[in-house]
What we know:
Structural class: mainly alpha
Largest sheet: 2 strands, antiparallel
Strand content: under 5%
Number of domains: 1
Number of strands: 2
Amino acid sequence: MASVDLALATISFKRKIAYKTTWLFSVLFGGWSLLAGLAVWSNLIGDGEMGGYDWQAMKAYLIVGFLTSTLAWAGSDWEMANRILDGLVAVDLTKPVDFQRARAGEYIGGMAASVPAAILGTAAAVLIFRPAPPDSALAAVLTVVSVLFIFPLAFGITYLSVLTCFVTQRYLGIQWARDTMLAFFSGMMVPLALMPLWLQGVAWALPFVHFTTTPASIYLGRVDTAGALGLLAAEAAWAVGLWVIGRLIWSQLVKKVTVHGG
Length: 262
């Protein structure tokens, strides 16, 4: 099965990089978003600080957010959704391939196609804007580990949202709602430290927080080593939990599959 997973991921990777214009546009759009964020927070913070972030730290936070958002939104979620909406899922059920694992391979392969652009964009941002360096060499390594966990987390959240197509027979609204929740509760829009305490508590109870706040907190040393390891453990637990939940929901939904027109 591992060879099948790798083959599906490779096909998805090649499909993504084949559309170079779309690929470049997504990177440029992320770059403009980063520039806009830097301009806004530069004026807000000035020579002071907000939520414990001075200007150097905020630059690092925004660049980490650019990296993680580039990866988080790079998967092929519409391909998954269309398999359900178009009834192709019925064909999948006749194949000796696990549906969830197959979609995971395709989705993560699509995310992998964004890695070179994400790395180049992040390196360019670091060279141009000179943000605060990582708190330590260990913090840098743990930040990389945290970013890697985004791959299974992004798939887990996306897969659950796609499964709603069995009920809604629509996906666009679900996608918008999911992406909005991700951008807000991850801290991509506004750092969690600037939110009311009750809202911070809600954010930390959801998996979205690990897309930006967790890697940025580790990078900047806002948590100690034990805290960083705890955050990584939480990411791992969410990755496993989302996979199991997706499997349980699929096992129930697949019993009620209705293929329109066939």
